[in-house]
Amino acid sequence: MNDVSAPPESRPGPPPYDAVVLAGGAARRFGADKLATLVDGVPMLDRVLASVAGAQRRVVVGPERETAAEVVWTREDPPGSGPANAVVAGLRACAAPYAVLLAGDLPYVDAATVARLLEALVADPTADGVMLVDDDGRDQHLCSAWRRAALERAVAARPDWGGAAVRRLIAPLSTTTLAAQGREARDIDRPEDLTSSS
User: Fold this and answer.
1) What confidence tens digit (pLDDT) does each residue in 150-180 have?
2) How far, in Å, are 38, 127, 128, 130 from residue 123 at the CA level?
3) Rounded CA separation 161/155 (Å)
4) From CA 146, how far away is CA 99, in angstroms rounded?
5) Distant-in-sequence contacts of 118-126, Cβ < 8 A, 24+ apart
6) What range(s) does the MobA-like NTP transferase domain occupy (predicted)?
7) What is the pLDDT of residue 9?
8) Are strands 72-74 and 129-133 parallel, antiparallel or unpaired?
9) CA 127: distance to chain centroid?
10) How far is Cα 59 from Cα 23, in angstroms, rounded to an integer?
C-alpha cells in the first residue's frame, strides 16, 4: 500500500505534478498554426502533451484545438497579453505540488526530459525551479519544472503580469539549470527549423 502521508520528495518515482503548456502566440514567422504541424506524423502540440502524460492535469493555455490528449483549456486574460500572463492563467488550473512549464513548440521534448527536470528539482531542496539550458547557453524558461508554491509567490508579487516575459516572473526565484540533450530544447519558429540538422 502506498504511504500517502509521506512528503512527495520521499516517495519513489516522479513527484506529483501538473503541466502547463503555452499554446498561444500568433506564429507569424511560421505562417500557419504551427502547433498543428505534423512532426514525424504527430501534431506538434500532441507531441508536447505526450511528454507530460504522467501529469495529474495537463493545462493548455491558448485557443482550443483538436488534440488526442485529455486536457484542460484556459486562456490568459485578456487573450494575447503575453507569456507571463499565460503562465498565471495556467497555474490557476493547477493543484499538484509541482508544475512543469512547456512551450507548445518544443516537439522534441519527451518524457525523459520531464523526468530529468523533476528529478533534479526534487534532489535540490534549495531550488524553486530547474530549467534546461540550450547549446547556445540560453535558459529555456518554458522547458522547466517548479515548486508550484514558489511560482505562486512570484505571481503574487504584482497584480498584473500583462505584457511581461516569463523571465521577469521567475526572476526572484532560486533556479538551477540542466544542459539540454540532443534536440529537446529546440523550439520551432519557422518551417525550416524542422528540417535543419540537430
Assistant:
1) 999 999 999 999 999 999 999 999 999 999 9
2) 36, 9, 11, 11
3) 8
4) 5
5) 118/14, 118/15, 118/17, 118/145, 119/14, 120/145, 120/176, 120/178, 121/145, 121/146, 121/147, 122/8, 122/9, 122/15, 124/176, 125/9, 126/174
6) 19-171
7) 47
8) unpaired
9) 17
10) 10
* Furthest CA-CA distance within the chain: 52
pLDDT band at 192 (very low <50, low <70, confident <90, very high): low
34 and 3 in contact (C-beta within 8 Å)? no
CATH superfamily, region 8-194: Spore Coat Polysaccharide Biosynthesis Protein SpsA; Chain A (3.90.550.10)
Q: Where are the beta strands (DSSP E) in 40-180?
A: 42-43, 58-61, 72-74, 98-103, 129-133, 139-147, 175-179
Q: Is the pTM for the entire model greater than 0.85?
A: yes
The gap from C-alpha 42 to its chain's centroid, in whole angstroms, comes to 19
pLDDT at 187: 81
Entry field: residues in the chain: 198
C-alpha cell at 182: 540532443
The amino acid sitting at 55 is A
Strand, helix or coil for residue 133: strand
> What is d(CA 11, CA 24) in angstroms, rounded to the nearest whole number?
35
Angle between helices 44-51 and 111-123 (to 10 degrees): 40
